[in-house]
Amino acid sequence: MEIRGYTQSDEVSWIRCRTLSFLNTAYYDNVLNKKEIYKNSAIEIVAVEDGQIVGLLDIEYEQEENTICTKGKGLGGMIWHIAAHPDFQRKRIGTKLLEQAEQISKEKGLQYLEAWTRDDEWVNKWYIKNNFEKVYSYLQVFIEGNEEVQEVINVNVPNLKVVQAFAHYTGDDQSYIKSKFKRAHDCNCYIKKLV
């Protein structure tokens, strides 16, 4: 397996890898049809085996404090994507990508990495195992179905009917929100200090 920088010719394989790796997670519906182009500088690396992208990691990083990241001190890098193709999991691809990205991040003068993930237990354990610290959490709420939508959304536009919505809940009564909506995910922020 080779770890190298992402190139534009990797895009289709990158999208396939990301989509398949997210399929059996709480992010199953977060499907992309093209790879983002970041406004700021980014570390974009891939793991390749037999010409196929089997892992990926993207970090957009700051030149000025708190312009991308929000929970750490100093210059940070936001991990936007980290994934291993399901046919190649359990080969430490994510860890190898992270190790390479940390080395590059330190060379660029970053003090920490920030990552956000939903409530998949194995993903959260992976971050903790790799020395990230959970520093914040809120709920991502998917409001779906007539009952849920009608209870929380008032529409003042004639002939417009909302059928679903996405919301963030940052209050203290998370158990109430989880009991009220069928799909409410913890969204956890992790920080890893690099210095």
TrEMBL record:
UniProt-listed PROSITE patterns: GNAT
Gene Ontology terms for molecular function: acyltransferase activity, transferring groups other than amino-acyl groups
A Pfam family recorded for this sequence: Acetyltransf_1
Xref: InterPro entries: Acyl_CoA_acyltransferase, GNAT_dom, N-term/lysine_N-AcTrnsfr
Alphabetical keyword list: Acyltransferase, Transferase
Gene3D superfamilies given in the database record: 3.40.630.30
Residue ranges of domain N-acetyltransferase in the record: 1-156
Keyword Oxidoreductase belongs to the record: no
PANTHER family for the chain: N-ALPHA-ACETYLTRANSFERASE, N-ALPHA-ACETYLTRANSFERASE 50
Protein name as it appears in the record: N-acetyltransferase
The organism of origin for this protein: Pullulanibacillus pueri
Lineage, uppermost ranks: Bacteria, Bacillati, Bacillota, Bacilli, Bacillales
